[in-house]
């Protein structure tokens, strides 16, 4: 089961893919919700019911004619882990973290597949980071690690676009400013239902910049795995259906290269995660 959110004249609508078309879940069964976030909140059975209803759907969209938004365009939270791949921590010269390093993005940073990454006029060091995004299904607080995977609603491909000059050279060693410029959180194209991915810790993850492979690793390299991350985060705040967790990036980012590689207008970035999808975004000047 794979879900998208498409932009329609009536607002964002949750769709499933049925025989080459995106079919609106709510049009297939009026008792089903109009958003992916609500669908996640209703649990796995609702996802199955929605999937089975798709052939009855009246509102269908040709993929060539619709704009995809992030699969969950309106999450309550976007939580990100820094330095969560062993090799990436080493390439940046940072010690291996003993606890997750956390920062945030805001929903205003979200764009979908084929959305444009806008380079801010105030940054000259915009970098790329391929990431697996975990999407929370059932919410909770103080979730034990042993039950944590039951709270995963699905997975998506993400791109943690990062303005290094704003991330690393501002007072207080804060990261957030550099991470949440508008359009700095591409996610998509689809949300893949959790049960579709048999092992989220054994997925090839790679990033191509204008066709050249810049990052090529595996989620087996994650320092804090999905279950441990959910347990850790839920000590702090209540996780809600549709919350997004960016799980960190493998080696090969632009700032670690000699000379460094920064995104420029006209670039095309593709992030691909095995079994999850391929997210493509082009870069434009702000
Ligand atoms: Mn990152």
Characteristic key phrases:
5-stranded mixed sheet, binds manganese (II) ion, alpha+beta, Fumarylacetoacetate hydrolase, domain 2, 286 residues
CATH topology of the largest domain, by name, is Fumarylacetoacetate hydrolase, domain 2
Global Rg: 18 Å
Second CATH tier, the architecture of the largest domain: Alpha-Beta Complex
Q: SSE order, as H and E?
A: EEEHHHEEEHEEEEEEEHHEEEHEEE
Helix proportion: 10-25%
The CATH top-level class label of the largest domain = Alpha Beta
End-to-end separation: 36 Å
Whole-number mean pLDDT? 95
The CATH homologous superfamily of the largest domain corresponds to Fumarylacetoacetase-like, C-terminal domain
Look at the helices and sheets and give the structural class: alpha+beta
Shape: globular
Task: Classify the beta-strand content into a percent band.
Answer: 25-35%
Can you offer a commentary on this structure?
This protein is α+β, with helices and mostly antiparallel strands. The chain has two domains: 2-69, no CATH class; 78-285, Alpha-Beta Complex (Fumarylacetoacetate hydrolase, domain 2), CATH 3.90.850.10. The protein has seven helices and 19 strands. A hairpin with a 2-residue loop joins β2 and β3. It is globular, with a radius of gyration of 18 Å. The model has no long low-confidence stretch (mean pLDDT 95). The structure holds manganese (II) ion.
Summarize the structure.
Helices cover 15% and strands 35% of the residues. The protein has 286 residues and is of the alpha+beta class.
């Amino acid at each position: 089961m794979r879900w998208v959110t498409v932009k329609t004249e009536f607002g964002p609508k949750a769709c499933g893919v049925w025989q080459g078309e995106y079919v609106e879940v709510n049009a297939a069964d009026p008792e089903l919700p109009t958003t992916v976030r609500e669908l996640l909140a209703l649990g796995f059975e609702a996802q199955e019911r929605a999937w089975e209803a798709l052939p009855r759907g009246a509102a269908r969209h040709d993929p060539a004619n619709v704009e995809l938004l992030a699969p969950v365009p309106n999450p309550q939270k976007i939580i990100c882990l820094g330095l969560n791949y062993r090799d990436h921590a080493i390439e940046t010269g940072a010690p291996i973290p003993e606890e997750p390093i956390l920062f945030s993005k805001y929903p205003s940073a979200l764009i979908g597949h084929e959305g444009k990454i806008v380079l801010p006029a105030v940054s000259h060091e915009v970098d790329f980071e391929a990431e697996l995004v975990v999407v929370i299904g059932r919410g909770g607080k103080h979730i034990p690690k042993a039950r944590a995977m039951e709270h995963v609603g699905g997975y998506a491909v993400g791109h943690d676009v990062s303005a290094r000059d704003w991330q690393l050279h501002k007072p207080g060693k804060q990261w957030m400013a550099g991470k949440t410029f508008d359009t700095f959180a591409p996610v998509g194209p689809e949300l893949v239902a959790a049960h579709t991915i048999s092992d989220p810790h054994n997925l090839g993850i790679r990033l191509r910049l204008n066709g050249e492979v810049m990052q090529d690793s595996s989620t087996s390299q994650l320092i804090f795995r999905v279950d441990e991350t959910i347990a850790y985060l839920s000590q702090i705040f209540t996780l809600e259906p549709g919350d997004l967790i960016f799980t960190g990036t493998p080696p090969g980012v632009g700032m670690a290269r000699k000379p460094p590689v920064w995104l420029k207008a006209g670039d095309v970035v593709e992030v691909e995660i095995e079994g999850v999808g391929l997210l493509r975004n082009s870069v434009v000047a702000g």
